[in-house]
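Hi there. Long-time user, first ticket. I'm pasting a complex I've been working with (about 227 residues overall). I'd like to know whether the download I got is complete or cut off, because the file seemed smaller than I expected. Thanks.
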Amino acid sequence: MSFVITPPPQAALPVQGDERRFPVHRIYCVGRNYAAHAVEMGHDPDKEPPFFFQKNPDNLVSDGRFPYPPMSQDVHHEIELAVALQAGGRDIPLEQALACVYGYGVALDMTRRDLQDQMKKASRPWEIAKAFEASAPCSPLVPAAAIGHPDHGAIWLDVNGARRQSGDLNQMIWKVPEMIAYLSQLFTLAPGDVILSGTPSGVGAIQRGDRLHGHVEGVGELQVQVI
Ligand code: MN
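Hi, the file is complete. Here it is re-exported in full:
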């Protein structure tokens, strides 16, 4: 196939212990998937089920650097388990959902909170708050073939050595198989799709120069410098 312009580079994530990379197709993000975070954002987790938004595939970055984005004075960290799919489809049954998972990573859903608040108030979309450049720093993926499918274990984020966010994967309102099954009713999921599965409580602002250290038990570490 020939193109009228040079094709953009394929968005991709490194894989632990493998020279090859994981090609990224789409990024789906789950909102308010830990009850304590829903409460800190002013919502009732019993009345508002989780919902989805998207980032752009090349917003996933793995170079350990987060450039503070323009047009915001209040950029927040959200530490999340990333779920990378090797298979997809429509109307995936719950019991087949985990077979679609290639592996897992430790990711940050970086958010321009001030712009998100403005968009919420105006009932406008969230892209300018969520889908900006380098807005999804992510660790190398680890294959499920090596670690299984984590459904419990600590998830935390330190900023400059101080614990900011802390939770457990077992606190997810919607579990990974449920997210995949539900998303597949709304979209045709595909190999290369990545799901960011929501954040525990403790989100807060970051500053230029901050060192972020994220951890998901059994999955790995994410080190990011804000520049
Ligand atoms: Mn999030």
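A couple of notes from our side: The two ends are 39 Å apart (CA to CA). Residues 12-226 form a domain with the Fumarylacetoacetate hydrolase; domain 2 fold (CATH 3.90.850.10).
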